[in-house]
Amino acid sequence: MPEKRTRYAILGALTLGRMSGYDLKRFADQSLAHFWTESYGQIYPILKELLKEGLIREHRSGPRRTEYAITPGGKAALDEWLVRPAEHQALRIELLLKLFFARRLTSAQVRALLEEFRDQHVGRLAEFDAIESDLETRLGDHPDLPYWLMTLNYGQHVSRALIEWSDQTLKELGKQGRKRAT
Amino acid sequence: MPEKRTRYAILGALTLGRMSGYDLKRFADQSLAHFWTESYGQIYPILKELLKEGLIREHRSGPRRTEYAITPGGKAALDEWLVRPAEHQALRIELLLKLFFARRLTSAQVRALLEEFRDQHVGRLAEFDAIESDLETRLGDHPDLPYWLMTLNYGQHVSRALIEWSDQTLKELGKQGRKRAT
DNA sequence: CATGTCATGTAAATTGTTACATGATTGT
DNA sequence: ACAATCATGTAACAATTTACATGACATG
């Protein structure tokens, strides 16, 4: 069902300029990291596919460097994907699976899980805030900036909600019994 | 890295009572659905593995039905996993990937994506609220209930946050230009 | 007697990461 | 000279879904 989203991540990235496989990986790690990941094991084979299909073009820009540029056909394919509603994807949230069976744990153990989770999101939120000011100062006039800020804002909303949820849940945990199942 | 979480989902489920492979699938679909999924293709082979390792026991309860029960060894393995902090898993949020490249779209097209997303979460939130009252009336005294409500609450927090984010983003979209990239 | 649910299973395909190999260039 | 970064690639592994096959039993 999740029909080769890496292809579109690559095509999308190439609308921002020519890139090598290496560049694409860095782009994913630096700019998409908080909602997307890519690995070399995907990037290089898919670049060859896209090339064969005429959705991208090759430009040798050095003896050991090849840049790729998106073609009109590639843009068409990307746009066709962009307008399709994002599929609802089945998630697997490990923390919640643990929490669902948490009666087997002591309150202290559940508390530790939740605190770890909370701290993770406090850290993430701080990161998002830092990236936001950085983007605004460095790319204040970039035409894509409004959309990039929207994706950041998503992360900020979610992290804030999950910190709130963690706090609430931790508080409620205090009210409950301290027994443990066998 | 995500070291066979299905094993623990199965072990956890079996702490609630004996189940067949079929039961486990239904349990996942009905009780874990909003944060976990399982398929037959995983369940049946893994049941055999767990059996071989002595983490579960077989009970033939009919000519074409086999129930499984967790053993003390299985409980130990489950508990060992439960206390380990949940690994941070790399997410891939398709909507955000689209939004990141949304300058290629018209405002109306972006708006459509966001509205679809918003509606999805309005629906989910309503579902969560319905399940919550249902659980509270039907299982008001179940010892696991507090933990189950915590997982529900997680979903409610996230959905509320994402509805808010959608609304904010839609509003901001109105303020922006109506141009489209080429 | 047809439809739906109960029940078990498997083969193939998909999707993706990890780990490695290789080597040039750049900076310290 | 050493480490880091640039650069391309692949093989092996892991996890998971999808689609199918099979058939009993229950209900209207």
Properties at a glance:
homodimer, 182 residues, mainly alpha, two-stranded antiparallel sheet, 64% helix, elongated, DNA-binding
Walk me through the structure.
Two copies of one chain form a homodimer. The first copy, chain A, has 182 residues and is mainly alpha-helical. The first copy, chain A, is built from seven helices and two strands; from the N terminus they run αααββαααα. In chain A, strands 1-2 form a two-stranded antiparallel ribbon. Chain A is elongated and about 65 Å long. Chain A starts with a helix and ends in a 7-residue tail after the last helix. The first copy, chain A, binds a DNA duplex (28 and 28 nucleotides) through helix 3.
Helix content of chain A: 55-70%
Mean pLDDT of chain A: 93
DSSP, total strands of chain A: 2
Kindly report the oligomeric state of this protein.
Answer: homodimer
Which sequence of strands runs across the widest sheet of chain A? Answer: 1-2
Indicate the topology.
The structure is a homodimer of 182-residue chains.
Chain A: H1 5-14, H2 21-32, H3 40-52, E1 56-60, E2 66-70, H4 72-83, H5 94-100, H6 107-138, H7 145-175
Antiparallel strand pairs in A: 1-2
The first copy, chain A, binds a DNA duplex (28 and 28 nucleotides) through helix 3.
